[in-house]
Amino acid sequence: MADLLRPSQVGVAGRRRTIIRLTPGAHGRLKNLSNGTAKEGSDAPDSSRPMHFKQENSYRMTPQDSEKFQPGKVKKAMFDVLEERLQGVTYDSRTCQDLAKELAAEIQKRVKEFRWHRYRVVCQVTLGQQTQQGLQVASRCVWDHMLDNQASITYDNKSVFAVAQCYGVYFE
């Protein structure tokens, strides 16, 4: 019973939240501390929701040089994704809309693998048919020029052009 919260502590957690703690010796049973019910299953809480851990404040307001967003690395990752996914692709208005979303998600995934802590990554991909037209893609951002950065790259083949943009915004 030592692992249960007092009723006053359960109220602090809020009415809509559920407190789940793995009780010692439960052998695969999860105990819901808000109403005392138990769930059979794995030793971990619901795997569909990410687990959040409290971290102690580091009191750092700027990243170290090795933790800064590096546009050179991002451009290489973006080029690799665009080249392997768009090589030999012909333009189709129905499929290119979904393809642009998939490319943006893939680029974002690759950039997050660099593990620049406290950076939020935003990716955007514009796809279009290659008909020798002129096109300008522009963006405006309000940010700290010392910490935030961006990378953009263009890729084209005989049928499709792509403009990929990736923004790294430092989150204090």
Quick recap of the structure?
Belongs to the dynein light chain Tctex-type family. It contains three helices and six strands, in the order αβββααβββ.
Give an overview of the whole structure.
The chain has 172 residues and is of the alpha+beta class. The protein has helices at 7-12, 71-86, 93-112, and strands at 20-22, 29-32, 38-40, 119-129, 149-156, 160-170. It folds into two domains: 1-54, no CATH class; 65-170, Tctex-1 (Ribosomal protein S3 C-terminal domain), CATH 3.30.1140. 24% of the residues lie in helices and 23% in strands. It is elongated, with a radius of gyration of 23 Å. Belongs to the dynein light chain Tctex-type family.
Output the keywords.
172 residues; Ribosomal protein S3 C-terminal domain; 3 helices; Tctex-1-like; Tctex-1-like_sf; dynein intermediate chain binding
Beta content: 15-25%
Count of DSSP helices?
3
Task: Give the % helix.
Answer: 10-25%
CATH fold call of the largest domain: Ribosomal protein S3 C-terminal domain
CATH class of the largest domain: Alpha Beta
Main sheet: strand order: 1-2-3
Strand/helix succession: HEEEHHEEE
Poorly predicted regions are: 9-23, 25-42
Query: Whole-number average pLDDT?
Result: 79
Number of domains: 2
Q: What's the N-to-C terminus distance?
A: 40 Å
Task: Tell the overall outline.
Answer: elongated
Corresponding CATH architecture of the largest domain:
2-Layer Sandwich
Q: What does the main sheet amount to? A: 3 strands, antiparallel
Give the beta-strand count.
6
What's the CATH superfamily of the largest domain, by name? Tctex-1
Radius of gyration of CA atoms, rounded to a whole number: 23 Å
Structural class: alpha+beta
GO biological process, one term: microtubule-based movement
GO molecular function, one term: dynein intermediate chain binding
Family: Belongs to the dynein light chain Tctex-type family.
InterPro entries: Tctex-1-like, Tctex-1-like_sf
